[in-house]
Amino acid sequence: MKIKLNLETIIYIAVILLSLIALVFGFSSFQFTDTKLVYQGF
Amino acid sequence: MMAPAFSSPRQAGAFALLLLLILLLPVLAGKSFLSTREQMYSSKGRDVIDFPYLHQQIFEKKGDIDIAFMSSSRMGSAIDAPYVQGKLSEQLGRKAIVLSLTWTWNGYDALYFIAQDLLQHRKVRMLVFCDLSYDLSPSVGDIAHHQTSYWFRFADNAEALTGLPLKSKVSFYASAIIGMPRNLVGLLRSNFPPIPLDKNLPAWNQSSTDFTPHTSAGPSDVRVYSEATKTSFLFSNTQIAPMQMAFIRKIGLLAQEHQTQLVFVHLPDFADRRAALIDEATFWPDAFHTSVPMVGIPPAILFAGLTDDEVGKLYFNPTHFDQNGKNYLTPIVTPALVQIYEDQIKP
């Protein structure tokens, strides 16, 4: 399937990329690494 | 058929812009769109860390601090700061100021940022800490402390990220993003003053049963590392996460910059109760690149003559002393700490 690179496609690629970056930040923080360890800390 | 996530490309574009804005907020806000650092500490209650107390001691109280015990809850559970203050006051012939500023969870990053804020506002002559790389697996040891969003702001602290692994930098930036909404709200109004502390003491300040151990251990059994006492220490060279090592060096530099004497105190776990030596992860003066007197007592001497059940009555859990343990340990180690203060601190 050939994807046409028009404005709409670029917008959706941007949404996907930014969502992935947000996920990387989310999973990089302590709470997402090992919830059990966090609660031990409390 | 599943409904599409966006009703139009325009809506998708708006979502992308919103995400971009959120992700860039720590950079875009700069220092001009941040509340004061005081508002960070006072924006949190006492549920996880006693932030109101940290706020009070850093930003409201004035005057020099003779000894600050700064570390995780393991330190808070083991050392009775008012007792040390009493003994130091007797020795100095004036009222000494001795504080315990502790928080939950390990990590030298927390010590670095909280100590940096404290030292910018108050002179601390001696800073006593315990091992904060303790029990941090390599995967967790390279990630920012879980309360980082309350003391790390990209515009204020970005320089502290120098020399950290990429994974650590990402986790700090993520914490800065999490902290941004609260910082922005802090611009609009001040936080409420803290609710006075009542009897809701931390769990480790309570003991299920009062127990006073009768042992022969005393202050003379405490070792301060030197040529004469080095056989009582064991340096197991445990692998310390790169981020922890980076912050250890930054703390060494911070202490030198503010002429603060660092002192390390070994706190034994229940599991180490029969150990004949003071087992340390590494030789701390080399790690900090500065003078760090190391104080400890071999657990086998500290708990000599006590059954496992009796030792258990000194612990809240396997890694934290309880009130019995605090009452037992503090008088034993205090003379060594007072002596180090006298030897190292110039009047």
Feature tags:
heterodimer; A: 42 residues; mainly alpha; 3 helices; 79% helix; elongated; disordered C terminus; B: 347 residues; alpha/beta; six-stranded mixed β-sheet; 44% helix
Q: Could you explain how this protein is built, in words?
A:
The complex is a heterodimer of chains A (42) and B (347). Chain A is mainly α. Chain A has one domain (7-41). Chain A contains three helices and no strands. Chain A is elongated and about 40 Å long. With 347 residues, chain B is α/β, with parallel strands linked by helices. Chain B has one domain. Helices cover 44% and strands 12% of the residues of chain B. Chain B is built from 14 helices and ten strands. Chain B has a six-stranded mixed β-sheet with strand order 2-1-3-6-8-4, sandwiched between helices. In chain B, helix 1 (9-29) packs across helix 9, helix 5 packs parallel to helix 14 (323-344) and helix 6 (108-121) runs parallel beside helix 10. Chain A binds chain B through residues 7-8, 11-12, 14-15, 18-19, 21-22, 24-26, 28-31, 33-34, 37-38, 41-42, and chain B through 6, 9, 12-13, 15-16, 19-20, 22-23, 48, 104-106, 139-140, 143-146, 148, 167, 170-171, 173-175, 177-178.
List the SSEs and their pairings.
The complex is a heterodimer of chains A (42) and B (347).
Chain A: H1 7-28, H2 30-33, H3 35-41
Chain B: H1 9-29, H2 37-41, H3 51-60, E1 65-72, H4 73-78, H5 81-92, E2 98-103, H6 108-121, E3 124-129, H7 138-141, H8 154-157, H9 166-188, E4 223-224, E5 233-235, H10 242-257, E6 261-265, E7 278-280, H11 284-288, E8 294-296, H12 299-302, H13 308-312, E9 315-317, E10 320-321, H14 323-344
Parallel strand pairs in B: 1-2, 1-3, 3-6, 5-7, 6-8
Antiparallel strand pairs in B: 4-8, 9-10
Helix pairs in contact in B: 1-9, 3-6, 5-14, 6-10
